[in-house]
């Protein structure tokens, strides 16, 4: 298998198929496009759980870890409560670096009033950079838990912000020295600033004021990968107009330089939403200062397709993220991170 998410066929065959225990308290368990488990703990309330590691970068790993986990909870419509941390640190990692990592994690958590409620830390020879794995805990009213089987053909698919947010900021930070030899420094600086847009908590809160039938955050595999996973989650088809998918010029330029597909670049910070009246939600997002765009519709059947001008092509299951291609290509030339 290649670096990145385990392929969907392997996920179904070698992971999901091995899981035999079922409990009545579990409202939503593992599945393609399901980033959270949901457990009923009271007649009217459920607990939402999610877990994620950060492996694609060492820069800002604490901030990223918090945002990515809270995004999973937000995509389920949950209110975040707390985080559990597992810190795997490389041999020789300094206490000062550990303090800085925890400062990042605490600073990001404070912004959402989320408590660090436990975890584990160790130094191990199994890693060559700090790995932060976070389990998120949230809560939701049981009657607000989204059921994918309620999605119907004709519903709007809405996307917040733009494609490739996380990948753009990671590449701009890690490859800053190289990018500035080709682009104006202002472009690189702006691309680095995309890390301020990584959270989808605010747009999730706005969306939950409407009738929302499914949400999915854009992560590895980019917007195309997220659309595939959304289609699998709702078990219906979808058609998306590629020309309506927002892209920032900084993402376009950076992807062109590194020969990457921006639609397949890790895109945390963007949220896909299925609702009956997407344009009403777009207006509500706009009032809150959030870009939102209706990019397509749910269809009958199970096809997942992108419309580009007058042609259609199928969306395929996500493969290794474009970010890993950049890392592989430029680490070999010793210009990715180790550039001094």
Walk me through this protein's architecture.
The protein is an alpha+beta fold. The protein has two domains: 8-144, 60s Ribosomal Protein L30, Chain: A (2-Layer Sandwich); 148-331, Alpha-Beta Complex (Phosphoribosyl-aminoimidazole Synthetase, Chain A, domain 2). Helix content is 33%, strand content 26%. The protein is built from eleven helices and 13 strands. The protein has helices spanning 8-15, 61-75, 95-110, 165-174, 176-179, 185-192, 201-207, 222-234, 249-258, 278-287, 322-331, and strands spanning 26-28, 37-42, 45-54, 79-89, 115-123, 131-141, 156-160, 212-217, 237-241, 271-275, 292-299, 304-308, 311-314. A seven-stranded mixed beta sheet has the order 8-10-7-11-9-12-13, with helices on both faces. Strands 1-2-3-6-4-5 form a six-stranded mixed beta sheet, covered by helices on one side. The longest helix has 16 residues, at 95-110. It is globular. It starts with 7 loop residues before the first helix and ends in a 9-residue tail after the last helix. The mean pLDDT is 91.
CATH superfamily of the largest domain, called what?
A: PurM-like C-terminal domain
State the separation between the terminal residues, measured CA to CA. 32 Å
Q: What structural category characterises the helix and strand content? A: alpha+beta
Main sheet: strand order: 8-10-7-11-9-12-13
CATH topology description of the largest domain? Phosphoribosyl-aminoimidazole Synthetase, Chain A, domain 2
The share of residues in extended strands comes to 25-35%
List the uncertain runs.
none
How would you spell out the order of helices and strands? HEEEHEHEEEHHHHEHEHEHEEEH
